[in-house]
Write a structure and sequence with these properties.
The chain has 30 helices and 19 strands. The protein is of the alpha/beta class. The chain has three domains: 263 residues, 2-enoyl-CoA Hydratase, Chain A, domain 1 (Alpha-Beta Complex); 178 residues, NAD(P)-binding Rossmann-like Domain (Rossmann fold); 219 residues, N-(1-d-carboxylethyl)-l-norvaline Dehydrogenase, domain 2. The model has no long low-confidence stretch (mean pLDDT 96). Bound molecules: (S)-3-Hydroxyhexanoyl-CoA (3H9).
Length: 705
């Protein structure tokens, strides 16, 4: 018997338990183990029924995603064995009952649906999340799910990949029974009841398959919703096509249609990008040199300084995680304004059905607004979220240094300033760290955690762990100007402005990047953030500019005329009261005038050139960051961009995208840009080395991890 699947009996029932921690994935050996156990049960005349259950925290959470990585890199990975097990289960002459707790996802649900019955605890979830990996169910799930839950619901579940709670799964017919109390005992009792009855095969059921007119209507609605919500992604549409095949074709032919679509999706760059993102999100929490044994500091009480947009959002993040938080302001007016905004945000969530009113009130009650320092001496973490001004931040850090208890973490929500300089205002730089939240903090998933040169391992490890508790993706960055995200964003924005200075309209620049998959075009993002922010920074650092080099000017020219973007109603675009953008009719004349004075030639660019200019600027800066050690791995950069900057998840992030294009091609293009536009495009030495040796950023990551 396989060690991954154990065999036990309880009287006339055999119990097969999958023991493949942490999530009982269908790794090599697991399907074989299930098949072997089943064979043993069938061969034993004393056994009348079989229960399939997961050991540990979950039922089977899906196929082993590492196998897809092997297939992507041409290194094997055989999924056919899962299909054999699925057939063996359904063809068993003795009934097989799936006993579900935790998550029956992907191949896990497919195995469960090949069982003759499914029971689950109330907290269980089922789902077909394959689209989140750029693929579709490949274990006949698109054919069995519509037979259990109906085609409309099956299309929705397979296209969006969202989990279904046990109660809904029960209503839909995916689960036959909800078990109260002990799952194993409940499943065995259920198995006894069905022992001796001819096992019903899901594949032979047709009563829920509906009629073609209604199905087509439902599929078209799901298709339209998927095109909108998962813009640019191919797998959701393929998943709907596969479910549609179940309604048109006999079961086996439908399975073949699924297999063809699955193979197409699996070989796509989208699945490579999304699988990279899946593992990347988990990889970023592992910091080389900071082991699992690093002591974590308790974070039970928090305090935030500044109740503006960022501070208020950060207080909500703590409250949403159930951590009580003090929120301090300097004036009653600012405090009242901050609390009013927080309350409005919670009530909007209630209106949209995201939270119940009671839940929102509970969260609000965790936030204590105050003007004093009362209770700050009890806080486990104090987050400074004042304006982006070094003198002010140092003043605040010096003040909290006097009050905070010795083990308190002192976090600064800065987006560009030096953590080391901020830490120098305290007597304990080892406790100081950057926690760079993204606006709106209660919505955006990214938390850039910036280590200063003195930040202690405990403070770093606690910050990484805290990010998870706050339901954020924490990425560790080094202390350079702009850290990872904003440092790379600068050349990306620079190129978008250069393109306009060269005569391309903001509409064409933004449309090209939106079509590429970015959540928003770069010029609209700059209008949203406020053009004055960059303008002020630029004026402050003017003395550091290289004489003779080209810098983006058009945004400064706009600011000089009072056009700061959305906040003034005009920037690269003009905005109406509802913030709807339309072209700024005066901008192109202003750009042409400036270009003539600065000797910039008009250069109309195609959409693909626009994308290359902006995205390759990101990649080149990312490679510099990596070489300088401010980003630990290329995947850290990718996760920053996917979660904080609206980069399309299905492209895997800028560095993975570079790998997928091919580093040689990327480098060749960057060299062309260097010839045309000068030293801003000097290729990063790491990019040159990797490209010339035929390597990739992914391989570079493996070498450094
Ligand atoms: C599929 O099934 C295709 C079929 O249709 C084809 C059949 C032929 N494989 O997320 P966590 C690892 S596609 C390998 O931190 P949680 C994960 O990397 C699959 N590894 O825990 C992490 O490793 P590490 C469809 C996996 O409690 C560790 O387990 N299924 C897999 O927050 C813990 O994970 C899915 O897409 C896997 N399938 O969340 C489900 N799953 O510790 C994907 C997890 O080294 N998984 N790992 O960093 C999930 O959604 C979540 O992991 C889950 C648990 C909700 C299960």
């Amino acid at each position: 018997m396989s060690t991954l699947v154990t065999y036990a009996t309880d009287n006339t029932v055999a119990i097969l338990t999958v023991e493949n921690p942490p999530v009982n994935a269908l790794s090599p050996g697991v399907p074989e183990g299930i098949s072997a156990g089943l064979k043993q049960a069938i061969a034993d005349p004393a056994i009348l029924a079989v229960v399939l259950i997961g050991g540990g925290r979950t039922f089977i959470a899906g196929a082993d995603i590492n196998e897809f990585v092997k297939i992507h890199s041409g290194g094997g990975g055989d999924l056919s064995v899962i299909l054999h097990t699925i057939s063996a289960i359904e063809n068993s002459p003795k009934p097989v009952v799936a006993a579900i707790h935790g998550t029956a996802f992907g191949g896990g649900l497919e195995v469960a649906m090949s069982c003759h019955y499914r029971v689950g605890v109330a907290s269980a979830q089922v789902g077909q999340p394959e689209v989140k990996l750029g693929i579709i169910p490949g274990g006949e799930g698109t054919q069995r799910l519509p037979r259990l839950a109906g085609p409309a619901k099956a299309a929705e579940i397979c296209a969006f990949g969202e989990p279904v709670q046990a109660s809904e799964a029960h209503e839909l017919g995916i689960l036959d029974e909800i078990v109260d109390g002990d799952l194993r005992a409940g499943a065995i009792a259920f198995a006894r009841r069905v022992a001796g009855v001819k096992p019903p095969k899901t594949s032979e059921r047709a009563e829920k398959l509906g009629n073609s007119a209604e199905n087509e209507k439902a599929f078209s609605a799901v298709r339209n919703a998927a095109k909108k919500k998962l813009r640019g992604q191919t797998a959701p549409l393929a998943a709907i096509d596969a479910v549609a095949a179940a309604t048109r074709l006999p079961f086996r032919e439908g399975c073949q249609a699924e297999a063809d679509l699955f193979a197409q999706c699996l070989s796509s760059d989208q699945s490579k990008g999304l699988i990279h993102a899946f593992f990347g999100e988990r990889a970023v929490s592992k910091i080389p040199g900071i082991g699992k044994d690093t002591p974590l500091l308790p974070v039970r009480k928090a305090a935030v300084i500044g109740a503006g947009t960022m501070g208020g959002g950060i207080a909500m993040v703590y409250a949403n995680a159930g951590i009580p938080v003090l929120l301090k302001e300097t004036t009653r007016e600012a405090l009242d304004r901050g609390i009013a905004t927080i309350t409005k945000n919670y009530m909007n969530s209630v209106q949209r059905g995201r939270f119940t009113e009671a839940y929102a009130r509970e969260r609000l009650a965790l936030i204590t607004p105050q003007l004093s320092w009362d209770g700050f001496d009890q806080a486990d973490i104090i987050v400074e979220a004042a304006f982006e001004n070094m003198a002010l931040k140092k003043e605040i850090l010096a003040a909290i240094d006097k009050i905070a208890k010795p083990e308190c973490i002192l976090a600064s929500n800065t987006s560009t300033l030096s953590i080391d300089e901020i830490a120098s205002a305290t007597s304990r730089p080892q406790s100081v760290i950057g926690h760079h939240f993204f606006s709106p903090a209660n919505v955006m998933r990214l938390l850039e955690i910036v280590r200063g040169k003195a930040s202690s391992n405990s403070v770093i490890a606690t910050s990484m762990d805290l990010a998870k508790k706050l339901r954020k993706v924490g990425v560790l960055a080094g202390n350079c100007r702009g850290f990872i995200g904003n440092r790379m964003f600068a050349p990306y924005c620079r190129e978008s402005i250069f393109l306009v200075e060269e005569g391309n309209t903001p509409e064409s620049v933004d449309a090209a990047l939106y079509e590429y998959g970015m959540a928003m075009g770069p010029l609209a993002v700059q209008d949203l953030a406020g053009l004055d922010v960059g303008w002020r920074i630029r004026k402050e650092y003017k003395h550091l500019e290289t004489p003779g080099a080209r810098y983006a000017e058009l945004d400064s020219l706009l600011c000089e005329q009072g056009h700061y973007g959305q906040k003034t109603g005009t920037g690269f675009f003009v905005y109406d009261q509802n913030r709807k953008a339309s072209p700024n009719g005066e901008l192109m004349a202003m750009a042409a005038d400036y270009a003539a004075k600065a000797g910039i030639a008009a250069r109309p660019s195609t959409a693909s050139e626009i994308v290359e200019r902006c995205v390759y600027a990101l990649i080149n800066e990312g490679a510099l960051l990596l070489e300088e050690g401010f980003a630990l791995r290329a995947v850290d950069i990718d996760i920053v961009y996917l979660n904080g900057y609206g980069f399309p998840s299905w492209r895997g992030g800028p560095m993975k995208y570079a790998d997928l294009v091919g580093l040689r091609l990327v480098l060749a293009k960057i060299r062309e840009f260097e010839k045309q536009f000068g030293s801003a495009w000097t290729p990063a030495p790491l990019l040159v080395r990797l490209a010339e040796s035929g390597s990739t950023f992914t391989q570079h990551d493996k070498a450094v991890s």
